[in-house]
Amino acid sequence: MKNVEVNNKQDLHLEQQDAAPILEDIEIDLLCEGIFRHYGFDFRQYARASLARRIRNFMELENIEFVSDLQNKILHNRQVMERFLLNLSVNVTSMFRDVGMYMTFREKIIPILHTYPSIRIWHAGCSTGEEVYSLAILLQEEQLADKATIYATDINEAAIKKAKAGIFPLQVMQEYTTNYLKAGGKQEFSRYYTAKYEHAILSPELRSRVVFAKHNLVTDSSFNEFTVIFCRNVMIYFNEELRSHVHQLLYNSLCRFGTLILGSQETIRFTPIHLQYKILDEQHSIFQKRI
To answer: Any idea where the CheR-type methyltransferase domain is (predicted)?
Structure first.
């Protein structure tokens, strides 16, 4: 009789283990639906494996055991929602991080931009601004800053606020300086910031070149026509349907012969509009709109 009870308990435990991933999937569906209805942020078509991993990481930080408990906190506490957004949307980033891309941009795209009377650049998914300011420095050194406006957008208001401030820990400046020099920097990197209280404050001139705003690639439409669009390492978190939607949005936002720059692991290949682009540099995912 005892053996039967033990076996029953083991079977029940195994059933619960088998059910756990299914229940979590249901809870994540409900969480995404609740966030969409209450806050308007649509994560329902994000790549599930990546989304689930980030949700688990956030739950560990917040000491929350179940996704359903997380949903309760998010729907009833905006501060939790803001922290969740920050955890979900901010990627590992640094100034001039992708050295090869910036070198290629200088060599292949800058000469094209010199032919335009004015330039509008959209940095979609700007996070906390490191890559945006890298671009602002590059344009300044290539004598394009006076005719260029950079529009930097992100889904996360906290990230935008941090990006607007242009303040970074002083301890990362050595790494940023190394990246800058490898990316073809032409000045002393220290001329672009002021060191104060263990922080580096970027120059007001650089910050004035950028217009920061909240924008959701999933739910918002295009807001201008752009000469260049950076959308790097954003769509890796989307499923195929959502990527197609965003690719169409970016295509519609580019001017004729405009340039699209994706992350190094991203491409327009196998998308419905891949024939509408010319590959300028496949290694660094730089493409030109054909018409």
So the answer is: 16-268
> How far apart, in whole angstroms, are the C-alpha atoms of residue 137 and residue 143?
10
Q: What 3-state DSSP class applies to 244?
A: helix
**Cβ density class 13-28: b for 16+ within 10 Å, e for less:** eeeeeeeeeeebeebb
SS (H, E, C) 112-135: HHCCCCCEEEEEECCCCCHHHHHH
The residue length of the chain stands at: 291
* CATH fold label, 99-289: Rossmann fold (3.40.50)
Q: From CA 266, how far away is CA 258, in angstroms rounded?
A: 18
Question: Which pTM does this prediction carry?
Answer: 0.83
Q: Domain ranges for the chain, please list them.
A: 2-89, 99-289
Phi (first) and psi of residue 249, to 5 degrees: -60, -45
Write the DSSP string, 164-182: HHTEEEGGGHHHHHHHHHH
Among residues of the chain, what percentage have pLDDT more than 90? 72
Would you give the DSSP letter of residue 106? Answer: I
List of residues 6+ apart from 273 with CB closer than 8 A: 247, 248, 251
The answer to whether 137 and 180 are in contact (CB under 8 A) is yes
State the sign of the Cα–Cα–Cα–Cα dihedral 219, 121, 133, 112: positive
Query: Distance from CA of residue 190 to its chain's centroid?
Result: 26
pLDDT at 90: 59
